[in-house]
Amino acid sequence: MAAPIPKAELHLHIEGTLEPELAFALAEGNGLTLPFASQDDLRAAYSFQDLQSFLDLYYALMTVLRTEDDFADLADAYLTRAREQGVRHAEIFFDPQAHTARGVPVGTVIRGLARALDAAPEKHGITTRLIMCFLRDHSAGSALRTFEEARPHLERITAIGLDSAEVGNPPAKFREVFELAREAGLKCVAHAGEEGPPANVWEALDVLGVDRVDHGVRSMEDPKLVARLAADQVPLTVCPLSNLRLRVVDRLADHPLPAMLDAGLMVTVNSDDPSYFGGYAEDNFTAVREALGLDEETLRALARNSFQASFLDETTRETYLKEVDAHVF
Ligand SMILES: [Zn+2]
Prior knowledge:
The chain is α/β, with parallel strands linked by helices. It has helices at 20-29, 39-45, 51-62, 68-84, 96-100, 106-124, 140-150, 175-183, 198-206, 223-232, 240-245, 257-262, 274-277, 281-292, 296-308, 314-326; strands at 7-13, 87-94, 127-135, 159-163, 187-192, 212-215, 235-238, 266-269. 47% of the residues are buried. Zinc ion binds at residues 11, 13, 163, 191, 214, 272.
């Protein structure tokens, strides 16, 4: 089989890469007992059918992440898998509040992740950026406190983001923390238009001033918004297998990805929470190729978009784009 096409992963929650084997290993290392008899039992629990059972499992398993080493192990395990999937550059989300709420300091999280990321170019042949996300179902005050706690570590952070439950938590709630981040020289991204309406995408653009929209698939319901996104070439980090698993679409064959490409949008394909949603980066490329009948040049365009939409420096971006152009399927 041909090697996977070189690509950048731009929508990846590091907590969503925790596989059962590592969950058990970390639990043992921390003297914890998981409420699952075996890795197979846990693997079966990953076959959840709705958002709430996903979130219950997601937060239950996060308790195994305690020390700097745990976060380094988590990121290193992801990077190992990512390389096998053709990922050459990864912009990785983490949720500090999911850890600080359990008493794990934000510095522990960032230092642990950074250790694995610093080793990644040599060890895995992958460049990286780190994106600190705020949980939008928590208060704006909590996001502001978390940002201040992370301030001593901002040289490790490229961008801030906004994730978790979209409905009822519009982007404008977080205007202040996004202003602070921009003043600090950080890029901005936000989940919007996944389960929430196109109005959330407008707010992410016009109130938060985001450089990229995560998901954004529901933008297609608003022709004016589509025109705006196309004119400005705002990148959208689309996650097909996640959309299928969380029922944003009923069948992958119904996914709006081809319509988004036809509309001239800067679309990328990503994996979101791959250990829970059934696939890493190349698995998502393969799934859309098969379900939507995408041809090789469309797949190459998606891979090019992933580097174009990244926060890479121009020289490195050009190097990767040449690798994409030279790829033989
Ligand atoms: Zn996401």
